[in-house]
Design brief:
The complex is a heterodimer of chains A (152) and B (160). Chain A is an alpha+beta fold. Chain A has 3 helices and 7 strands. In chain A, helix 2 runs parallel beside helix 3. The longest helix of chain A is centred in the N-terminal third of the chain and has 19 residues. Helix content of chain B is 22%, strand content 31%. In chain B, helix 2 runs parallel beside helix 3. The N terminus of chain B is likely disordered. Chain B has a domain of 110 residues: Ribosomal Protein S5, domain 2 (2-Layer Sandwich). Chain B has 160 residues and is α+β, with helices and mostly antiparallel strands. In chain B, 39% of the residues are buried. Classes of the chains: A alpha+beta (152), B alpha+beta (160). At the A-B interface, strand 1, strand 2, strand 3, strand 4 and strand 6 of A face strand 1, strand 2, strand 3, strand 4 and helix 3 of B. Strand 2 of chain A pairs antiparallel with strand 1 of chain B.
């Protein structure tokens, strides 16, 4: 009987901890628009995922696989509002994602976090992916006329 | 082309017969270029779960994604991804796993953010996965209460 009391007490404590986590039990739908789609180009799958934040976009481009790839960040920066890019995870100074991220910033004026697993030295695939992505971003309402460049 | 727009259901495990389920949520389709196939596209390969929760009075948007080789979690209250952390389980022969956490973008002087990543990667490891975690935290405050709330919500709705 003592064991069962101890077990009950532990269970209550565990529940209490969860309650003290100050997380409302109410989970609502996410306000962030998330767009996922796949295009077949040159017999290969190009997967795209776009998460639209109010002041930023996150883009993932997957070439035939669902690996995250290299992650980089790009934005207009002071003092001249030029586009700066930095590699965050994986990649070197010349990986595919950097150029794509830079051009997305130029086209949209947004800060961009881009993950891309397109292999190096694949300019055709990169160009195809960029074309599809820009088309999609335009259809979502992004364009230089919509947004001013945001300095970091 | 297969397209999802807006809300994706929790733990969206896309069924093999994906075209009919997906077409319900499709809006405008991109025009196909000459190199694109018009064959039905494969199901989207990244599982994701996204929701909103109130933490300390702040509405928090959370997205959990499972890539082939990584988990990614985004939690934002400020409209951007904020600080990005990378956490992974280290290879070792010890019985007790060790983990490394580093800030790859953003605030590097907020230990609570790293603690949050550390908690989550340990949880991922305990669930049996060795995939690293990319965690983005764009929060209004870095209090213990807020971060506990984030951890609790993500663990509750995680994809591991």
């Amino acid at each position: 009987m003592m064991d069962s009391c101890e077990g009950a007490r532990k269970g209550i404590e565990e529940v209490k901890l969860k309650e003290d986590g100050n997380v409302s039990a109410q989970y609502e739908s996410c306000q962030l628009p998330i767009t996922c789609f796949t295009e077949i180009a040159n017999d290969a799958s190009l997967h795209f995922q776009i998460i639209q934040f109010p002041k930023q976009i996150y883009v993932w481009v997957g070439y035939t696989s669902a690996k995250l790839g290299n992650l980089c960040a790009a934005a207009h920066t002071r003092p001249n509002n030029n586009v700066s890019i930095t590699s965050l995870i994986g990649g070197t100074s010349d990986n595919t994602g950097s150029g794509l991220a830079r051009r997305l910033v130029l086209k949209t004026g947004l800060n961009v976090i881009l993950a891309c697993n397109i292999p190096k030295n694949s300019p055709m695939i990169e160009a195809e992916a960029e074309k599809i992505l820009v088309q999609k971003l335009n259809s979502l309402g992004y364009g230089k006329s919509r947004l001013e460049g945001t300095s970091v | 082309m297969t397209q999802f727009v807006g809300q994706v259901d929790e733990k969206a495990e896309f069924p093999r017969e994906s075209s009919s389920a997906i077409s319900d949520s499709e809006s405008s389709l991109l025009p196909m270029n000459s190199n694109s196939s018009t064959l039905p596209s494969p199901q989207f390969p990244v599982r994701q779960n996204h929701f909103s929760v109130l933490i300390k009075g702040n509405k928090t948007q959370i997205v959990v994604m499972s890539y082939e080789d990584h988990f990614q979690v985004i939690a934002t209250q400020i409209g951007t991804m904020g600080t990005i952390l990378y956490a992974r389980k280290e290879e070792g022969v010890s019985m007790n796993p060790t983990f490394s956490v580093s800030v790859v973008f953003g605030k590097r002087d907020e230990p609570m953010l790293e603690a949050c990543a550390r908690q989550l990667i340990e949880k991922i490891s305990l669930s049996g996965s060795s995939k690293p975690l990319v965690l983005s935290l764009g929060l209004k405050d870095h209090s213990t209460e807020t971060l506990k709330g984030i951890i609790s919500a993500v663990i509750h709705k995680g994809l591991w």
